[in-house]
Write a structure and sequence with these properties.
The protein is an alpha+beta fold and 127 residues long. It is built from five helices and four strands.
């Protein structure tokens, strides 16, 4: 049963049992804010298990929305902000547009620049 919060003399708001964004979006936002975050930290922030976080990141990686790069025992994540969302209702929107709803435009531009630099570095290694 939803909990009620007292806001003033007459106003009350129910704490939501659901959110508009999925756990995929929550994980993506966490990695956009901190591309070197540990699974444990992302899981705690989103409110899911580390195993679920790992599964969601694997799905995002397989879909080409993010790229995981191993650095010793840690990972860094590069987000493709130009990737389109997957459901037919929202496929005209990009990951970058979604992230701009939650993050500052400057942060999203930094993600785009990081991904471009990663792609250039990766392409030069393959040549």
């Amino acid at each position: 049963m939803p909990r009620l919060k007292q806001l003033g003399r007459r106003q009350t708001v129910k704490d939501p049992d659901w959110t508009f964004l999925s756990n995929y979006a929550h994980v993506l936002v966490c990695l956009a804010e901190n591309p070197e975050a540990r699974l444990r930290d992302v899981a705690e922030r989103v409110g899911i298990t580390e195993r679920s976080t790992q599964r969601l990141i694997t799905h995002l990686d397989e879909a080409g929305i993010l790229t995981r790069v191993r650095h010793g025992r840690r990972n860094s994540y590069y987000i493709d902000t130009s990737a389109h969302l997957r459901h037919p209702i929202e496929e005209s929107c990009t990951v970058g547009q979604l992230l701009k709803l939650v993050l500052s435009p400057a942060r999203v531009r930094k993600l785009e620049a990081n991904k471009e630099a990663f792609d250039e570095q990766h392409d030069s290694r393959q040549s």
